[in-house]
Amino acid sequence: MKGRSPSTGVTKLTDTRIEWLIRQAQGKARPPEAVGQLAARWGVTPRWLRKLLQRWRQSGVVPRLNPRRRPPAPPLTEEEKRQIEEEHRRSPRGATKLWRALARRGIQIPHQKVYLYAKSRRWSVPNPRKQRPRGRCRYEREHTGSLLHTDFHRASVNHPHVILYEDDASRMVLSGGEFPEESSEHAIEVLEEALAVAESWGLTIREVNTDRGTEFFVSKKSDRPDPSPGQFQQFLTGHGIRHVVSRVQNPQTNGKLERLWYEYDRHRWRFATLREFIDWYNGEIHDALWLEMFETPREAFQRKLPAEVLLGLHLRRVESMGAEA
């Protein structure tokens, strides 16, 4: 049986991969891999890797790639620039989001060219803080409806208080509202809208994650005369929803929503209503989803529905078709 054929991708071998190859030859890398396995995974021929190993054994120096081994690529054409600018006007995002949106429309422009052009127009600014290694692992629920994130946010003292309910698995925003003040009544009002959206899909919301704000949570150690659960907590209990409360001084627990506030502050002003912003956000490509398919939160919401919900939707559709017949 023939081995796996090399990949046709452009980027095949890097200096880091060559160092890993040498560590494998020295027996210092774990897990151990054969030259054929590395060649198949990296999309190169085993002969080329053995040639690099031969150079290393003869010289004792780890081979390095020649940065000038390829001629410079042609610059962007005026038509390509126009397409990038048109996409940025439609949805002003960073270079990676622009590149994925163009690819979804069938416009093939190398990512590096899109990044350099966006950088020249100051649409994309390098952020050293985001380039550091992450100290936390991202958690994510498997199915839609398992957990909703919510919180109040205010862009400035001149803006209203906004609350959104975001699904953890799909990143889809189910409901939202803008109010002059934060309150448990507003939180419950918007949650009822989210539950109605879930119910339209035959879906049951199991858990809701909030911080320890007084509109969501009343601690048993509270100094209030009546330390019983607050109005929001009672509403969750009455609907059989588990309340997941974030730890004190730990906003990373609700980090998905914190990242959503960044998009809200950047793009909310472009839309006349909050509903229009939510529809736009749910229809945009999301980096945390199925990138190879350019998936949006709305598409992920359907893809990650539990099996029993999908079966129920199918049966409802069959019944409606039978009634029409």
Automatic annotation (TrEMBL):
SUPFAM superfamilies: Homeodomain-like, Ribonuclease H-like. Residues 129-314 form the Integrase catalytic domain. InterPro entries: Homeodomain-like_sf, Integrase_cat-core, RNaseH-like_sf, RNaseH_sf. Residues 63-93 are annotated as: Disordered. GO terms for biological process: DNA integration. This is ISA0963-2 transposase. Residues 78-89 have a biased composition (Basic and acidic residues). One of its GO terms (molecular function) is nucleic acid binding.
